[in-house]
């Protein structure tokens, strides 16, 4: 795949993975340093979307089908990620 997303930080200090307007939370760390991120609506909306990255944050595997619209977030001028 070789795509890149973006790690974003909220004003409360939480970090998310951002790809195509959708947010993902860290779900699992692999022994090779890779990370699996699950859609943040995994439980509330039963969304099965996920991203598997390498230790260098390169996307290796995805399921980017979401059963909901992307959440509304914007970046502040301080660089934080806030919900609108």
Automatic annotation (TrEMBL):
Where is each FLYWCH-type domain found? 9-68
Q: Which UniProt keywords apply?
A: Metal-binding, Zinc, Zinc-finger
- InterPro entries listed in its UniProt record: Znf_FLYWCH
What would be one Pfam family of this protein? FLYWCH
Q: Which domain of life is it from?
A: Eukaryota
Q: Which Gene3D superfamilies match?
A: 2.20.25.240
Alphabetically, the GO molecular function entries are: zinc ion binding
- The protein in question is named FLYWCH-type domain-containing protein
In its UniProt entry, the species of origin is given as Euphydryas editha
Source taxonomy: Eukaryota, Metazoa, Ecdysozoa, Arthropoda, Hexapoda
